Amino acid sequence: MKNILALLTFVFLSSCILFSQTNHNSTIEDYKKEIIGTWELEKDSRTKIIFSKNGKCYDYSDGKLDKTYYYSINTTSPQCSEKVPVGELYSYLKITNIKDPKDIYEYEINGLNKEILYLDYQRNLNTKLSKYTRQ
């Protein structure tokens, strides 16, 4: 029984290491370049986000501008209202409403390339994964 438990633990840890290395191979600077553009929410084509080079993102709903945010990408995790540096393996997107600085959203970037953006909304211990496609 101990051998099976040890084997399962080894396989699990190996998978975690392999997953983190293959899915987080871009740097913060790569993400800052790759995120620029228009992204459409996969489950709701009426929802779009446009990330610009000037550090602003624009949230559109039904073709109308809903809110404008400042955005930043870094390696600091928003855990339990504390900022926790996690290193280069993980990247986080923070957006702050320009008109209301208390209106803040933080996401883990679970994937970003020229076609797809995966954002995992970080709220307390609850997460919500959203998939966007480049337009």
Detailed description of the structure:
The protein contains two helices and ten strands, in the order ααββββββββββ. The model is unreliable at 2-24 (pLDDT under 50). The strands form two sheets. Strands 1-2-3-4-7-8-9-10 form an eight-stranded antiparallel barrel. Strands 5-6 form a two-stranded antiparallel sheet. It starts with a helix and ends with a strand. The chain has 135 residues and is of the alpha+beta class. The radius of gyration is 17 Å and the shape is globular. The chain has a single domain (26-134), classed as Lipocalin.
Write the layout of secondary structure elements.
Layout: H1 2-23, H2 28-34, E1 37-41, E2 47-51, E3 56-61, E4 64-74, E5 76-79, E6 82-85, E7 92-97, E8 104-112, E9 116-123, E10 126-134
Antiparallel strand pairs: 1-2, 1-10, 2-3, 3-4, 4-7, 5-6, 7-8, 8-9, 9-10
